[in-house]
Give the backbone structure.
Amino acid sequence: MKGYVDKDLCVGCGMCTGACPDGFRMGEDGLAEGWQDLPDSSIDDARQAAEDCPVGAITVK
Ligand code: SF4
């Protein structure tokens, strides 16, 4: 599984990178991005970040 960020929606708040650093990082454009396959131990954190993202930019699949 992996986290995906719709950069057309992301506002760069950084929440997801703090909540799930194994799944999300900030890109050079100042917007978040999914960057690796999620370790099993981080899948719940990624799903929570998807729920909590203020603009609904995250998909985990
Ligand atoms: S929580 Fe949502 S809006 Fe904030 S940086 Fe992550 S993807 Fe972007």
In short: The pocket of iron/sulfur cluster is lined by residues 5, 10-16, 32, 53-55, 57-58 (CB under 6 Å). Residues 3 and 13 are 16 Å apart (CA to CA).
